[in-house]
Amino acid sequence: MSGALARLASAAGLQLEWYGGDQAHAAVPGAEFSELVSALARRATLSDLFATTTIKTPPRLTAVLQVADDPAWLLLTADLESTRFASLTAQVHAASWYEREIFEMHGLEPVGHPALGPLRLHHRPEDQPPVPDGRGETAAVPSRINSRRRTPSVTGQGVFQLPLGPVRSGPQESAEFLFYSGGEDIVEVDLRLGFKYRAIELLAEGLRADQAIQLAERLAGTSAFANGLAFTRAVERVSGVDVSPVAESTRALLGEVERLHNHFGSIARLAEATGLLVAAAQYGLLKEETLRTAGRLCGHRYLRGVLRVGGVQVVPGADARAQLQAQIGDWTQRSDRLTRLLEQTSTFLDRLDTTAVLLPDYASEHNLVGPVGRASGIDRDVRRDHPYAAYGSVEFDVPTVADGDAEARFQVFSRELKQSLGIIRQLLEHWPADREEPGVTAWHEGSALGWAEAPGGECLHWVDLDGQGRLLRWRARPPAVVNWHPFAHACGSGNNLTDYPVIEASFSISAAEFDR
Questions:
Q1: What is the CA radius of gyration of the chain?
Q2: CB 252 within 8 A of CB 384
Q3: 39 beta partners
Q4: Pick from 341, 359, 190: which is nearest to 271 by CA?
Q5: CA 20 to 30 Å from 9, out of 153, 351, 479, 496?
Q6: What is the Cα–Cα distance from 317 to 406, expressed in whole angstroms?
Q7: What's the Cα-to-Cα distance from 54 to each of 131, 135, 354, rounded to whole Å?
C-alpha cells in the first residue's frame, strides 16, 4: 500500500501488515515503543493509546495513529517485559490521560509521567488495578489509596475554594468541580470524573460480539448510535462481513439524526446559560421533534437496538422517509432563523466572545476532536477523512473556526446542523433499493478497529475476538475521553464564575461517555 501513512512508517523502519486496505499493523520491541510513537506523533495524530493485560500473555501497549489526507490507520503494538514503560507525555501531550488510565486500570506505570494520578477510580487502592497486570499478581494489603491524587495549589490573599457537584440540579451528569477563585475570576479548576463508571468494557469480555452491541449503545445516551456503530464496524472487519447499500445508508441517516438532536440540545443549553429562555425553548422543541422522528424511524428515540453485525435491524420504510424529507425543509428554515436571531443578539454574543478560549496550538497538541477541536482550527472529521457507511457518496463541508472560544463552538454547532440536514436530504434522494442483507456466517479470530463520527467527535472502538466471536478485549475511546482533557485549562483562561454555565454548555461533553 502507498500513501502518507505508509511512507511515514517506512521512514521509521516499520514492517507493516495490512488488513482490509485501511488498517496497518506493526509490532515493535517494548523498549523502543515510546520513542517510536513519539517520533511518529510529530507528523501523525495520536488518536488512542491503551493497554491489554491478561493472565496468560505479557502486558501489551497499542497506539493508534492517523495522518492527514490518508484514510488508513496505523496500529503499533509492543509487548512489555515488565509493568513499567517510558512515558510519552513529555513529548506528546495528548498521551497524558491515556497513560493515566493505563496505570489506573492495568497497573502499568508510565515512568516519567509528570502528573500521574487517578482519572476515574478515586477511591480504589492504586496497587489493586481492576485488570490483571499480565502476571496475575495482586497486592495482599492495600498500601496506598489516592496517594498520587494531585490537586492544584492556589494560594494568596482572598483565594477561596468553591465546590460544585457531583450531584447537581437539572439533567446535568455527575461530575465534581472545585473552583479556585479570588473573588469573581476562575484561577484554577480541579476536575473529578468517574461517578458514572460502570466497567462496561470489562462486563463485555466473554460475551459474543453481537450480544455486546447493547453495551456499546449504553456508553452514553447522547451518542448511543455512534458508539454502537463504531463497535459493530470493528466486529464486522474482524469477521469479514459485507454490509448492503441500504444498511449503509440507514446507518449514515441515523447517525445524522443523532447529530441533529445533540446539536439542537447543545445550542438550547447555550441559550439557557445566557438567560435566553425563549430561544432555549425553541431549540428544545427542535430537539424533541428530532427524537420523536428517531422513534418513528426505528422504534427508539435514542436509536438503540437498530444495529446488528452485518447490517441493521430496521430499515426506514418509504412513508417514514417521505415524512422525514418533508421535515427537513421545516427544520432547516426554523434553525436558520433561530441562528440568525442569536447572532443578532448582543447579550448572547457578549457572553460567548473570548469565553473559555482554546488556542489552535493547544488544541493541536492535545489532538482535540469534534466541534471542540474544529472550533479551534482542527480540520478533522472521520466521515470525510476515513469514509464509512454511505458518507463516501454524499457531499458536505467540515466547518472550522480558529478563534477557539465559546462563540466559535456555537458557530460550529450551527454550521454542522446545516451540513447534517443536507446529508440527510442527499441520502433520502438517492436511497438504494432494498435487498437481503448479509450477516455473520462464521466468526473469525482477530482484532480490528472501528470508527464513527459521534456528535462530540471521533469515536474509536477496538475489539479482539476469539474463534467463537467472544470478546477477549474491547477498547472504547469515545470523544469525551479526549475533550475532557483541556476543559480545566479552558475554564482558567481569563474567565469568571458567572461564565461557567456558558463554558460547560459550549463544550457539550458527556461525563458518562468518559466514565463508561
A1: 23
A2: no
A3: none
A4: 341
A5: 479
A6: 40
A7: 8, 8, 47
- Residue that is written with C-alpha cell 494560594 in the block: 155
Q: What is the DSSP string of 253-317?
A: HHHHHHHHHHHHHHHHHHHHHTT-HHHHHHHHHHHHHHHHHHHHHHS-TT-TT-EETTEES----
- Whether 4-111 shares its CATH topology with 208-483 is answered no
* 299, pLDDT greater than 80: yes
> For residue 262, what are the CA distances in angstroms to 86, 256, 338, 417?
39, 10, 16, 10
What's the order of all strands across the beta sheet hosting 186-192? 160-164, 176-181, 186-192
Distance between CA atoms of residues 372 and 381, nearest Å: 12
SS3 string of 73-127?
EEEEEEECCCCEEECCCCCCHHHHHHHHHHHHHHCCEEECCCCCCCCCCCCCECC
Secondary structure element (H or E) that encloses residue 427, with its range: helix 406-429
pLDDT score for 188: 84
User: What residue type is assigned to position 30 of the chain?
Assistant: G
Q: Does domain 4-111 have CATH number 3.90.950.10?
A: no
3-state secondary structure of 62: strand
- Tell me if residue 424 falls in helix, strand or coil: helix
Length of the chain in residues, anyone?
Answer: 516
Q: What is the pLDDT of residues 121-145, one digit of tens each?
A: 877 666 666 765 544 443 333 344 4
Share of the chain above pLDDT 90, in %: 54
What grid cell was written down for 184?
Answer: 469573581
How far is it, in rounded angstroms, from Cα 122 to Cα 232?
A: 31
pLDDT 10s digits, 455-464 = 999 999 999 9
Q: Cα–Cα distances in Å, from 462 out to 23, 122, 239, 471, 481?
A: 12, 26, 13, 10, 15
Q: Which residues pair with 336 in a beta bridge?
A: none
Q: What percent of the chain has pLDDT above 70?
A: 92
Q: Where are the domains of the chain?
A: 4-111, 208-483
| Separation of alpha carbons 163 and 26, rounded Å | 46
pLDDT in tens, 314-369: 888 888 899 999 999 999 999 999 999 999 999 999 999 999 899 999 998 889 99
208-483 to CATH, choices 3.30.565.10, 1.10.645.10, 3.40.50.300, 3.40.30.10: 1.10.645.10
Instruction: Kindly report the number of other CB atoms within 10 A of residue 344's CB atom.
Output: 9
- Distance, CA of 66 to CA of 490 (rounded, Å): 26
Give the separation between CA 127 and CA 486, rounded to whole angstroms.
28
Question: How do strand 186-192 and strand 176-181 relate by DSSP bridges?
Answer: antiparallel
| Alpha-carbon 19 to chain mean position | 24
Separation between Cα atoms, residue 148 and residue 119, nearest integer Å: 11
